């Protein structure tokens, strides 16, 4: 992979990361309630799922989702259901002031939640499957190229998701009124449900 090609891929990776999606929502909600360091654990979970998706694409299995309506629908509805469940949980969250002693969620739970949010989004895998091969030179060793691609995707996504999480945690310092807490619970709950609904009615990218 030449430097010019890598810069092109970096630009594409930035656009993908900045575009709001379930990963951004889970990063913001975790950062808002539990702070950046717990959100970072969730963000690392997102990257594990991204690496798994990239590995699947590298092995050529991503084509199955692109061509099989059954496989795509199964993962799509699983992901949509999970996002809607997260939204309902957030909507029904108790109104707890952000300066109160809030028990930290287990790091393992935050990590697993990040993995599940990204892994149950088949459109992300298909998008990676459509994008990545365009930047891979078949005449060159592919393992090294995929390592560069994986590092670029993950580092870009960690930085962007961290930005979302930090912004949310800074905003959280101003939310002490119970009415505001309830409003933000329902706002983010609505975002999760909306993301799940959009995923459920989506079709395979052409």
Care to describe what's here?
This is Homoserine/homoserine lactone efflux protein. It is a multi-pass membrane protein. The chain is mostly helical and 206 residues long. It has one domain. The chain has nine helices and no strands.
Uncertain runs are none
- Number of contiguous helices: 9
Give the N-terminus to C-terminus distance in angstroms: 27 Å
Number of strands: 0
What is the molecular shape? Answer: globular
Roughly how many Å is the radius of gyration?
18 Å
| Count of discrete structural domains | 1
Q: Specify the biggest β-sheet.
A: none
Compressed to H and E, one letter per element, the order equals: HHHHHHHHH
Report strand %: under 5%
Q: Please tell me the overall pLDDT.
A: 78
Helix percent band: over 70%
Give a quick set of tags describing it.
LeuE-type; cell membrane; membrane; mainly alpha; Homoserine/homoserine lactone efflux protein; transmembrane; 9 helices; 206 residues
Write a short abstract of this structure.
The chain has 206 residues and is mainly α.
SSE order and pairing:
Elements: H1 3-18, H2 22-34, H3 36-58, H4 62-67, H5 69-91, H6 107-119, H7 122-131, H8 142-172, H9 178-201
Helix pairs in contact: 1-8, 2-3, 2-6, 2-8, 2-9, 3-6, 3-7, 3-8, 5-9
